[in-house]
Write a structure and sequence with these properties.
With 262 residues, the chain is α/β, with parallel strands linked by helices. It has a single domain, classed as 4-Layer Sandwich (Purple Acid Phosphatase, chain A, domain 2). It has 7 helices and 13 strands. The strands form 3 sheets. The protein has a 6-stranded mixed β-sheet with strand order 1-7-8-9-11-10, with no helix packed on it. The chain has a 5-stranded mixed β-sheet with strand order 6-5-2-12-13. Strand 5, helix 2 and strand 6 form a beta-alpha-beta unit. Helix 3 crosses helix 4, helix 3 packs across helix 5 and helix 4 crosses helix 5. The protein is globular and about 45 Å long. The protein binds manganese (II) ion.
C-alpha cells in the first residue's frame, strides 16, 4: 500500500464504508442515477464515483463490491482511497498476517472462489490505492479515517498528514475498543474533508469535515455525499450483517422488523 496522494477532477458522488454490502451499493448507485447492468455501470454525465475506503470485509459480498469498483476504476469512472480493511485484506492475501481475522478470511475465500486471476488483480488494485485523494483542485479531500495534522489544508497535505488506520495509537479502552482521536474538532483547513471509518447514525459535519460512514454493515445506512451539491442520499441496510461493538442506531426499517419479530 502506497502512502501517496492523487489529484483527480470531476463531480464526485462520495460513498461511505461499503464493507461488502453489494445490494445496498447497487441500490445507492441506481438512486444516484447510475445505470447498473450486469458487468457494467454507467455514471450520469459528468459524475465520478468516489469511495472513502473499507469496500471489503464483514459484509456479505466483498468480491462483487471489488469487481464493480475495479471495473469502474479501470474505465476511469471511479476513484478510491485505502481503508484499514483494504490494508488488512492485502496483508492476508500476501500471507503477512499469521491468522487473519474471521471476516478477512471470509473475504479471502470469496476471492479464491473467483479464481487466481481475480485474486491477483485484487492484490494489484489494493497495492495501488492512495491514502489520500485531492479533488476539485484541492478544495475536496478524501481520506478514510482522517488527518493527523488538522491544521494543514488541501494542496499542502503530505502523506504523513494522513491517518489511514486511526487505530494507530494502539491503546485499547476497558471495552477493548481503540479510542479515536477527534481530529475533526481541531481541523482548521478550508478544504472539505470527506471521510468514513467511524460509524455514525447520520452524516456528521464538523468544521469543514464530514463523516459519511453510516454503518451499513452494522444495520445502518449506506450514504453518498454528492459534491459540489453537498446533498446526501442514503439507502437503509437490508439486515445487520455484522454486530457492532459500538452502540449503534439501527435504521428504522430494521427497527420495525425487529419489533415485529420479537
Ligand atoms: Mn469501516
Amino acid at each position: 500500500m502506497e502512502m501517496d496522494i492523487k489529484t483527480v477532477g470531476t463531480a464526485p458522488d462520495i460513498v461511505g464504508d461499503v464493507h461488502g454490502c453489494i445490494d445496498e451499493l447497487i441500490e445507492l448507485l441506481t438512486a444516484l442515477g447510475y445505470r447498473v447492468e450486469p458487468g457494467a455501470v454507467t455514471p450520469p454525465e459528468g459524475r465520478t464515483l468516489a469511495f472513502v475506503g473499507d469496500l471489503v470485509n464483514r459484509g456479505p459480498n466483498s468480491a462483487e463490491v471489488l469487481r464493480l469498483t475495479m471495473s469502474m476504476m479501470q474505465a476511469g469512472q471511479a476513484v478510491c482511497v485505502a481503508g484499514n480493511h483494504e490494508m488488512r485484506l492485502l496483508r492476508a492475501l500476501r500471507g503477512e498476517s499469521a491468522v487473519p481475522r474471521e471476516d478477512v478470511a471470509r473475504t479471502v475465500m470469496q476471492l479464491d472462489a473467483e479464481g487466481i486471476k481475480f485474486r491477483g488483480d485484487v492484490v494489484d488494485f489494493l497495492q495501488k490505492l492512495p491514502s489520500l485523494l485531492l479533488m476539485d483542485a484541492g478544495a475536496l479531500v478524501l481520506t478514510h479515517a482522517g488527518l493527523k495534522t488538522p491544521s494543514v489544508d488541501g494542496e499542502a497535505l503530505a502523506p504523513r498528514d494522513v491517518d489511514v488506520l486511526s487505530e494507530s495509537n494502539g491503546k485499547r479502552d476497558k471495552s477493548g475498543q481503540s479510542p479515536r482521536v477527534n481530529w475533526a474538532a481541531a481541523y482548521r483547513g478550508q478544504a472539505l474533508v470527506a471521510y468514513g471509518h467511524t460509524p455514525v447514525a447520520e452524516p456528521t459535519w464538523l468544521n469543514r469535515t464530514v463523516n459519511i460512514d453510516t454503518g451499513c454493515v452494522y444495520g445502518g445506512h449506506l450514504t453518498a455525499l454528492r459534491y459540489p451539491e453537498l446533498e446526501t442520499v442514503r439507502i437503509a441496510a437490508r439486515q445487520i450483517y455484522y454486530p457492532s461493538r459500538r452502540r449503534f442506531l439501527l435504521n428504522p426499517k430494521l427497527l420495525s422488523n425487529r419489533s415485529l419479530n420479537t
